[in-house]
Amino acid sequence: MVQMVIVGFSAATGNEVAVHKIVSWNFTSTALVDEPKSGNANANIGLPIGLGVGGCLILVAGLGLVWLIFWKNGKAAGEHDENLFANSFIHEELEKGTGPRKFSYRELARATRNFEEGEKLGEGGFGGVYKGFIRDLNSHVAVKRISSGSKQGLKEYASEVRIISRLRHRNLVQLIGWCHEKKELMLVYEFMPNGSLDSHLFKEKGLLTWQIRYSIAQGLAPGLFYLHEELEQCVLHRDIKSSNVMLDSNFNVKLGDFGLARLVDHGKQSQTTIVAGTRGYMALEYVATGKASKESDIYSFGVVALEIACGRKPIDLSLESSQIEMVEWVWELYGEGTLIQAADPKLCGHFDEKQMECLMIVGLWCAHPDYKFRPSIRQAIQVLNFEVPLPILPSEMPVATYFAPPTSLSTVTTDTTSSERGQTESHDAVITPTPHNLPHLLQQNSSPSTTFRSPR
């Protein structure tokens, strides 16, 4: 308490006159200081507060700056690592003189008229495919431009380049070059003027004569034989379907789109458990187990063979119930001895019956529900060339025999979107099959073996 305080009293009675006196009073107070001393106290309190707040702001700003530097360095390092991953093996192939050519973004933009919509050949889940003209090659090309939102990331892109850059066969689409620039991923393929097989079979682009159809089947089989048997490692395509069967200017067949392909050692299955392919073309054991194999590729080839002969899709919901699934329908006709009734009606009977029967039976043989009874691609080629007798299949479609599928399995299926003018692209969707929604062909049962008979 300070030594001296000043106390004052005041009273008023308005207009009246009164005399006041203090009888008693009491006073309590907190510490009082002179005005100048109060200002110094506030200053003393504000100074440490200001220093503390300022220090915190500086610390936060410093930490933010450090994080930003590390983030930029990490991003740059990650991009650098990705570039190395995508480019290192390609550069190695280029040094050997065997790899695809590296194009600049500017070259491909100029070749496709800056990716003009009118040059687009097809559109799918991985992006667009554009027709282009490379001046120094004096030839047209198909440029697959992988979109930024595509499920085909850098590793899948690099995998596709790595696999297809090793392939050299007259019945496979040739990879001419690649581009990884400005965060763009592009692949450059030889251009197929007559587009895809499905555009002729289902979209009335032009009716294929029987002679061309049979030669397509005979050409597709050697391409698959090359992938399965003639390389150091087996290439599992995993997406053989009519929209990936391309036709050049002379209707010579070339199998394309290796975006889902995998390299495996001979005699082994793919180690992945992610099912990739298209509904109607996937073998049931592949859907159930997630393990791709030569046999699952053979199944897809069999479905394409039946498409060529029948001129219809593997699953057509517009047809009556007994004809919705092509393989089951054709097998039923085979058992009844009326197989030729499945021939494409658009051919109006203008076909070689012996070849038609052969192609359908090979298709059924390859699409056998039990993979153990499917032929190798070599055996299929021998039958197509009439080098060996036709196989005698069971009169009723067998059911598969293998272990039950897992409880659930992530599955990727692809549906094709293509223009009427050529190269196609795949679109991804995800399903999850379980033992409850897999077809009845997954049930345990025995399968009759296959015998052979001479062609009629």
UniProtKB/TrEMBL annotation:
The Gene Ontology biological process terms listed for this entry are: defense response to oomycetes
Q: Which InterPro entries match?
A: ConA-like_dom_sf, Kinase-like_dom_sf, L-type_Lectin-RKs, Prot_kinase_dom, Protein_kinase_ATP_BS, Ser/Thr_kinase_AS
* Domain Protein kinase span(s) in chain numbering: 115-393
Q: Where is the composition biased (Polar residues)?
A: 442-456
Compartment list: Cell membrane
Which residues does the annotated region (Disordered) include? 410-456
User: Low complexity bias: where?
Assistant: 410-419
Keywords on this record? ATP-binding, Cell membrane, Glycoprotein, Kinase, Lectin, Membrane, Nucleotide-binding, Receptor, Serine/threonine-protein kinase, Signal, Transferase, Transmembrane, Transmembrane helix
Provide the membrane topology annotation.
Answer: Single-pass type I membrane protein
Gene Ontology cellular component terms for the protein in this record: plasma membrane
* Major place of residence: membrane
| Chain residues that bind ATP | K144
What SUPFAM superfamilies does the record tag this protein with? Answer: Concanavalin A-like lectins/glucanases (SSF49899), Protein kinase-like (PK-like) (SSF56112)
Name the Gene Ontology molecular function terms of this record: ATP binding; carbohydrate binding; protein serine/threonine kinase activity
Gene3D superfamilies, per the entry:
2.60.120.200, Phosphorylase Kinase, domain 1, Transferase(Phosphotransferase) domain 1
Pfam families in UniProt:
Pkinase
Key word Ribosomal protein present: no
The transmembrane segments are 45-70
Q: Which family does it belong to?
A: Belongs to the protein kinase superfamily.
Q: What PANTHER family does the record point to?
A: PTHR27007
**What is this protein's record name?**
L-type lectin-domain containing receptor kinase IX.1
